[in-house]
Model the fold of this input.
Amino acid sequence: MEIVLASDHAGFTLKEFIKNHLKSKGFKIKDFGTFNIDSCDYPDFVIPACTYISKCKLPTKGIIVGGSGIGEAIAANKVKGILCAIAFDEYTAVKSREHNNSNVLSLGSRTVTSNLDYACKLVDLWLSTPFSKEIRHIRRIKKIQNFEKTGRYPKIKTKKLK
Done:
């Protein structure tokens, strides 16, 4: 599996640490930058990385890193076909795969790097967790994909309270 990486200046150091960690595990890496700690704008790196992922025919996942990971996730989710989730602990890393089938993981270098190895643990958990394929999760993801494709949201079927 190929892993696509991208970061801004605030995420550069963590991105590089994760890159070395993944290379040591034998993953093929495609790094979209940034390539230094000079101030830059995360959309310039995240959007091309996620566009690449969305068009890739082979199994590909992405890991994006910023100061908080929030802006990066917002930018990533603007790209058709991307399901990006922010993880800040083991629970969110696992659930973003099990329930949401995320194909991009966003990390905040200022939220998970009190220990760089912990950030790599989150990456490993995310990469090793399969999508549960439960009907309720498939149904929810299909609703998101349908909205992405058509711009229409599903009608909600609820009973009115009297």
In short: The chain has a mean pLDDT of 94. The CA atoms of residues 4 and 62 lie 4 Å apart. The helical segments are 12-24, 43-55, 70-76, 90-98, 109-112, 116-128, 135-150.
